[in-house]
Amino acid sequence: MLADIEAGAIEAVLVWHVDRLYRRTTELEEFIAICQPRNVPTYTVQSGPLDLATPSGRMVARTLGSVSQYESEQKAERQRRANQQRAEAGRHFGTRRPFGFELDGVTPRPDEVEAIRSGCADVLAGKSLASIARGWNSRGLVTPQAGNPWTSTVLRRTLSTERLAGIKTYRGEVVRDSSGEPVEAAWPALVDLETWRSVQAVLSARAPSWPGASRQLLSGVARCGACDAPIHSGGARNGRRRYRCSQKGGHAYREAEPVDNYVGEVVIARLNRPDAIELISSADANDVSEVQRDIRALNVRRDAIAEGFADGSVSLSQFKAANARLSARMQELEAKVPTPGLPALAHLATARDPREVWGSLDIDVRRQVIDVLMVVRLVPVGTKERAYLDVEARIVNPETVQIAWRV
């Protein structure tokens, strides 16, 4: 509208009330600056003409604008307080339906709940978000707001929301009661808290933490067979990815895809052996649960020390000394928790068809599994004839890809 007034396309402005024209004094000043020199009159149905040509008329307009701005700010403040009270009570509010629940935000939707639970299990088993999203789309599931097909980005955001574990958040923060404990949400948890936290750990481990983070299977995992330096991506030649020794003037240059395929086949062959179950970490479920209990107990002790420092019963030097001891112990305990690659290894070792499972895994999880199982060294070859048993078919010569099993 302002652009049309400036262009001379509008000769007069008619509104129901001034608060439909502007709600902030800055908006009014802009309106005055455009209308006054062009003698464009303003009329309101509720209050009559708005005289912007005289000082007294502009004073009235500014007064009405101040009142409108006050009322708008008061309304926003009341809404914020109401939302805060609802959040502190653990209630759902908002007009958007969260995935997994009906429009009321409290009643679970059985088909979506099942998808969320199976999706969390698939993440922990090492499946890629893209493959999980394809599975959801094939079942006819769509995003709750726009009704769009699922993508890995939207799926990651959905599985990362605290609401799935029955945790209420407000403005990105967990809502806590007066004692500092998370408030009980009005809706049921769709997955237990430990499962949700495990899923977050896996998703965080998969997310590239810097631009250009590796998306090649053996980059940073394999080593040079001549100097033992890490193997990195060597760019591409003739459209084919390559690996190279990371040392200056490095030794090993290999086409990546045939080597990736060979290492994958070695992993699959090992997992097809009858003793594959023995590859699983010796830390069984009871051991892991015990470590998790110890971590929770340690967190309680750390909170107690912090409270003691806050109320003055613990001195600063005592707080620092105790916190240092507990932090060291926490690092020891966290080191005992299996890495994200181990659940995938367990899934592979017990699968009917390891090849199918291996193909469904996210590349970051496959890298973790390889790193757990073996050390891969690429031997400098010099010629294609030495690199391959069959140059045309790109069948790798096993003597040029050395594998030392860790387990």
UniProtKB/TrEMBL annotation:
Domain of life: Bacteria
Any GO molecular function: DNA strand exchange activity
Disordered: annotated segments: 68-91
Chain ranges of the Recombinase domain: 98-209
Ranges where the Resolvase/invertase-type recombinase catalytic domain occurs: 1-90
Transmembrane segments: none
Pfam families: Recombinase, Resolvase, Zn_ribbon_recom
Coiled coil ranges: none
Matches recorded under InterPro entries: DNA_bind_recomb_sf, DNA_bind_recombinase_dom, Resolv_N, Resolvase-like_N_sf, SSR_resolvase, Zn_ribbon_recom_dom
Name of the protein: Recombinase zinc beta ribbon domain-containing protein
